[in-house]
Structures are given as C-alpha cells and as structure tokens.
Amino acid sequence: xxxxxxxxxxSRLLKTRNLMEKAxxxxxxxxxxxxxxxxxxxxxxxxxxxxxMIVDIHESQPIWIGRFMDAPAAKVTTWxxxxxxxxxxxxxxxxxxxHPMQFIGDFLHKKGMQANRIGVEMDHYYFSAxxxxxxxxSLPDAQFLSGxxxxxxxxxxxxxxxxxxxQRAAKLAEIAMYNxxxxxxxxxxxxxxxxxxxxxxxxxxxxxxxxxxxxxxxLPTGERTSIPHLTWxxxxxxxGEGVIIELAGCYKRYxxxxxxxxxxxxxxxxxxxxxSIAIEGINRVLQEVKPGMTCGDVELVWRHSxxxxxxxxxxxxxxxxxVNYPPDWGEHTASIRRGDQTVLEPNMTFHIIPGLWFDRSxxxxxxxxxxxETGCETFTNFPRELIINSxxxxxxxxxxx
Amino acid sequence: xxxxxxxxxxSRLLKTRNLMEKAxxxxxxxxxxxxxxxxxxxxxxxxxxxxxMIVDIHESQPIWIGRFMDAPAAKVTTWxxxxxxxxxxxxxxxxxxxHPMQFIGDFLHKKGMQANRIGVEMDHYYFSAxxxxxxxxSLPDAQFLSGxxxxxxxxxxxxxxxxxxxQRAAKLAEIAMYNxxxxxxxxxxxxxxxxxxxxxxxxxxxxxxxxxxxxxxxLPTGERTSIPHLTWxxxxxxxGEGVIIELAGCYKRYxxxxxxxxxxxxxxxxxxxxxSIAIEGINRVLQEVKPGMTCGDVELVWRHSxxxxxxxxxxxxxxxxxVNYPPDWGEHTASIRRGDQTVLEPNMTFHIIPGLWFDRSxxxxxxxxxxxETGCETFTNFPRELIINSxxxxxxxxxxx
Lengths: 401, 401
Hints:
Chain A is α/β, with parallel strands linked by helices. Helix content of chain A is about 35%, strand content about 20%.
C-alpha cells in the first residue's frame, strides 16, 4: 500500500547518501516529517512529539525512531524491515526530567556513531533548540554539522509518479476553489465558505479523496485582504467586498496550492486595477519560464511587469512545492526572488504567487507550475481572473461540483 | 474585536512577569504561537516563518516581531500599540545567507538587552536549533536561561471567558462527532467521513462557526484502530469494522477534544470487551477527580480499574488542554500519569483519553473535563459508549444535526 514503488524510495535514499558524502557526513538525522515521508513513506500525525529518521551513509535502509505508540504506524506505512523501527517509552513524552533525545543519543551510541560526523536539520520546526542541546550532551564526541535542506534539495525535481499525484492534488484544488467561490456570497459567513472548501478538498472526486493540506485555507476579506495569513471568522460577507481564497489540494501529502480573488458583486475600481496588474504579471512570467533560467531571472520578469505600473513588491514571487506537512507546504529551497541562483530544470514545481497587498486591499492570483522541457505548464485549469462571484460559472461545472 | 477584554490580557501578562521574576529573567522570548495568542491576541497562520514576542519584565506591553507582511495581522488582532509591532524584511525568509534571528538579535541589542538574562522556550516547535544558535551569536554577552513552559503554566487555570469559549468548542465537537458517526457506514469512504467532520466543526451552529483544530481528525479503521495517530485514506469502510474518531471542536483557538469508537454493524466480542473496560475506567476517573488530587492520583484510579482486568497501559491517561495551534492541542504542562505532582485546581481543563491499543484492535473513548470546586464536569454531552452506528441516534438530534 506504499504510494511509491520501493525502488523509488531506494533511489531517493541513494541520492541522499550521495549528497551526504559530498557534505562529509557519516550520519544524517532527519526531523522534517516531509523528508521522513519522502525517504520512507512514514505518514502519521505524530510529529507533535520528537521523532527522527537516521540515515547511515553505509546502510541501505534508514531507521525510524519515535514514540512507542507510533512504531506500529511506521510498520504499516514504511518500506523498512521491522528491525529498523524503534520506539521510545512514553515517559519521555512532555516530561520535565526526561527528553526523547537522551534515548536517541543512547541509541546512536550503541550503534557506534558516538564519534561520527552527524548532520542535523538545524532550522526545522521539529528540531528544537533543546533537542539539539540534549543530543550534544548525549554524544559529546560527535561532530555536528549542518544537514539543512539536504533531503529538500533531492525533493526539488519530481518523478513522474510525483507529478501524477500533483495532478490529482490540482483537481482537488479546483473542486475546492469552485465550491468555495460559490459560497462566498453576501449573507453567508466566512466559516461557511471555509467549511465548504474543506468538505470538497477532502471528499474529492468519486475516484479519490484528498489529504489535509499543510496550511489551512486562508480567507482574508474586505479591508483584511491586505493581510495575507488571516484565516476565517464567523463574520458575514458583505456585498462589494473582495475576498482572497488561498488553498491547496493535497493528495498523498503532495500539494498544489492556488489562490484566487473574488469580488462579491461589482468590484471596486481599485480591485479591478490591482487584479489586472497581478494577472498581467503572472501571465508574462508563465510565458517566459523555461529550463536554464534562474529563479532570480524569473522574478525579474515579474519585477519589470510591475515596474511598468510604478509598483515595487518586497515579498518573493514564489517557492518550490511538493510533499509536505504542517505548518508549510513550501520546500524551503528555491525561492522565486531577486538573486536566487537556482537553475530551473524540468519537473521542478513552484507555487507562483503574485500577491499585491496595499493599505486597504489586496489581491492574490496564483498558479502552481511544472517546468517542462521547453517552458512550463500549470497544474490547475481554473480561470486566471478576478472572479465576480455573481456571474461565475465553469464550463465543466458538472464534473467538479 | 479582541476575544478577551484588554484587562484579561494585561492580567495574563502580569502573571507572566511575576513568574519571570521568580525565574530570574529580565526578558522572555516567546515563540509558541499559543503563548503569543494568550498574551496578545495575535492570530494568523504565520508561524511557518520565524516570529517572536518579547516580554520585558519592566514593560506593560509585549513586542511582536515577525515578517513584514504579517505585521498588519499583529495590528488588527492584538491589543498592543503600533510602536510595539515590528516587521523584518522578506529577504530574511528561507534564505541560506540571512536568518530572522539576526534581525531580532540586532533589535534586542538596540533595546539595550544585550547583556540581559533572557528566557527562551527551548523545547518548542517554533524555536529551532538554528534560531537559538543565531540568537546566541547575535548577543554574545546575554545569558540565556530556560523559559520553557513558563506561559504555559499561567495558561493552566482558565478564566470564566475561556471556559465559555471551551463550552462553545464542545458544542462544535458534538456536532462534528455526530455527523462523523453518521457517515461511518459500510460503502462510504474514510475521506467522506473526514470531510463531513470538517464541514460541521467549521460551519458550526447558526450562532457561531469553528476554527481549525490544532490536530486534524484522526480516523484509524479496522486493524489500524491499534495505531492512534493515523489520519484517513480513500479506502471504503467495511461491515463489522471498528473505527476510532478523535477530533476537537475549536473556538477562538480553544479546544475541546473528544474521541469515540464506532462499530460498523455488530461489534466483535473483543471490541465489546475492551470498550467496556475503557468506559468503566473513565467513569471511575470522572467520579473521583476533585481539587487537591495530583495528576498522579488520578492516573492511579485508572490504573487500578485496568488492573482488575489484567491490563497495564504504558501511555499517559491525559493532559492539560486549552488554547493552541498546530501541531498539538495539548499544553505540554501537566500529564495525567504516574508520578505527575501537579495538584488539581478549579478551572483546570484536561483531555482524559483512555486509549487501549492491542495488536489488531484498539479503542478510544475520551472526555475533556473542567475541574470544579467539588469534582469535575465534562464539556461535551455525548453518549459515553461504544457506538453501534446502525442503531445510533441522539435525542436532541434536531439541535445538533
């Protein structure tokens, strides 16, 4: 029941071990749940306690180590043999005297890794300052080095099977967006729209359902469209308001984010103006993207397009996306911004999100793209326009409603 | 539009400053989004980038510091004056040369805090090993001390307004559970049940809607009921299977979790047996809980109840709950387990979750409780039984369907 053939996991592990060799690492300790999933298949909501995957450069299987009650999840969701799955006792959980890294440090010691060069994901959510302190205390002779974003780099170029999963995620995003837009009407509440989006992103199609996305639907409304990361309230939508919907379809943990801006009834002149600037900008970018460009080059296309309208935007235009867990669907590797030297290659995937936020209004109209051999293509097929909800229909409504 | 009166926030801040004094801290740096929300009201999905709240022991307002595009969210969701809201430029986000803690370190330096005793939340998700390294590098003369769980301790005893919000969250949990149970039927898919749960936990009642919970609905099915932290798939439910539903209603970020076990059709003898053990155990616990007991005492009641059936359970029986953000609704302070010396006081709130997981089946039947002056009461009013879905109805169905 693994989402990928075992040989795909083994190939990912091999690439990881090759990068470890270049970085001079004997061992890599992985705490990013997306990286754990990517290498092993592991999938459970257990990252709220400390857990880790150990990659030994000489070994053909990683080791999963986590809370005892989650070891059965590792047994059913990963490809490793059971002797590679280790549980620590519950007394280590949220204790003020014991810490899971003491157990893990002891385990590494027993494995003979106490004087190794050990890579750790220094800037990941699930590797806390204390986890690092405890690990260093347990292994005083080890040399700790940065393993930051090492597996994330491997994740950047997607396999055909990953692209297929993202295509399914895209269909889920379309369905959720379509139904969300239908619910964004004066008299409905923001929570009704959020509920409808959730219902459809998860129940999905007859053929497949969706997973929880790494970020909840974002739904800034009215003047709050100038504030990108607000969620919803139980306030009632008003005629004439703008509403931003940013969501992602998620399938087998693979994300396709999409943002659209909706006007409830006739849009303001300002909303029309900034929408058309955002759409012109993203259209130019989508025309220009091709392998061999850097992310910085891509951002320059957007910057020039904006400049023609006398606008400068501080925030990045986009970022690499794929498999992920809360709290972020971005891969934290390449950003589409000034100076990013990452060279585009086929099957890299990005969320291109030209957000324009002003004092009292904002707009987001985004696409998730795959770099192809000759250019790029969008995952979703959804009108790239300011949506006037009173007149909005889709030709293939029957299929996705 | 703050969910609490400004005096309630100020009182929380005062309690925090008192604990800081006892701990010998000049400054406390808060990265836990629940603690940030608790002290300031701050509420946005921005914790996927580095952000912080600075509490100076001499100051009557905290300072919010985060990504520039989230500063407007701080302006509209907190009670602090605008000069206490600081944004850092976007170039610090997910960069391999710059780190937000460099900006924050510089800011603390300018504030004259460079030689202070600074408390940090060492074991929180959103304070990474690298964040701590960068902060120490920026402030070489500061003394860093543990501020772990300091604000979390203040959060343990709820105010009347917080209890009111948890009562609303409880109603959302009931609605979501009721509708989830109705969807757990042979022929439906797990994703259909998850979608229905989400729809109702968020659309809520006519009077109010719900927020996203800190943990997604958990839905282990069949043999996988032995594995607590699995989410859903698009597999079809089968007649005769057991299904665990663990979810929380969430209102203004306050959580009331609840778990129930459902049998699709006639339950197996084993499921009947372990359910009755779990129910007997939780009923005994609910009868015994009262102020003055320790969490360890409470666990002993459960342990004795289990022992009569020849069962020992390794995992803790419960934990403190309240305001929270992903990835956990637990407060990480008191656990209901052997040896926990926390003394129960009125308006402490716990999720009591007697989960029993065996090789091929498991059961969870839980309650979230408030400690009262004389005992305890449950937040939800939902049959505390193994639910046989073919015959399940609620008397007040009209109200919550």
